[in-house]
Design goal:
- By secondary structure, the protein is of the alpha/beta class.
- It is globular, with a radius of gyration of 19 Å.
- The chain has a single domain (about 30-340), classed as TIM Barrel (Alpha-Beta Barrel), CATH 3.20.20.
- The chain has a 7-stranded parallel beta sheet with strand order 1-4-6-7-8-9-10.
- It is built from 10 helices and 10 strands.
- Strand 2 (about 75-90) and strand 3 form a beta hairpin.
Amino acid sequence: MRFPTTIAGSLPKPDWLADPEKLWPSWHLAGDALRVAQADATRVALFEQLRSGIDVVTDGEQSRRHFVHGFAGALDGVDTSKLERRGIRGDRYEADCPTIVGPVRRAAAIHARETHFARESTTQRLKVTLPGPMTIVDTLVDHHYGSRAKAAFAFAHALRAEIDELVAIGVDVVQIDEPAFNVYFDEVEAWGIDALDAVVSGVGCETVVHVCYGYGVPANVSWKSALGSQWDQYAHLFPMLARSSVHTVSMELAGSHVPTHVLGLLGEKNVAVGVIDVATNEIESAEDVAATIDLARRYLPDERIQCSTNCGMAPMPRDVAYAKLRALGAGAALARERAG
């Protein structure tokens, strides 16, 4: 199929499950009641993707409070009760971050339960998203390793163990979220690509690395508005990703100032092109989506183009997110029809 569709990962949580439109929502339930509610929310997320024509679905991250700490906070050596405020993503904004207090170790499966449920709940191709080593390190406070690189490889080892178990469950695609790659180019070159490869090399399913300009929250929107008329971050990053072991690169395009020619810097990688802008509540038309796909077709053959959202939609109003899903599916269908 030309132009298969997917999402970057997260969808908004219903207000009966958690605080709406927040990146760090508080759960409204606990214990068994929470697990049942998370399963119900996952059913809704899968249904909304299916009826919108999304080909590779996720669980919408309905069982995680945050895309990084849902994984990192479950590891030995990370203290989620010991929070310190620090600047992250190159001091773009501040966050209260858990602390690395000892050797990082994955003592047990972290996302196996919800992945089993999602796998049993859909016949669609299933994608699971996990935070990348550099982004984890950039969202914690290190009081143990004394080196971002050493900490990153410890997390890479834990991630690889988790991925192997998820693949055994029946996951078709594993996506590694690395927004930090768009900030720390020297570190990406020095050790970031090697840490990514330690996570994905030889994995028994399709692998994706997602690098974007962040959720549509005020700090990210303000940062992007200061980047000027042409965003050149991908021009630095993509040649490095072209040399990595990952199969597919997921990137932001719609509503951005990313110069389209950077798509030609990814070698032979497949590209999940962001055709839905998550920094606005305006709903794209099918024509808008198809037009963004047409831009990508100037630099990529059809068989290497996938269609996705620019980033996760966790902080968006639910009705907006679901309408954008439908636009994504309809726009890809229109692009297929035109391509013949």
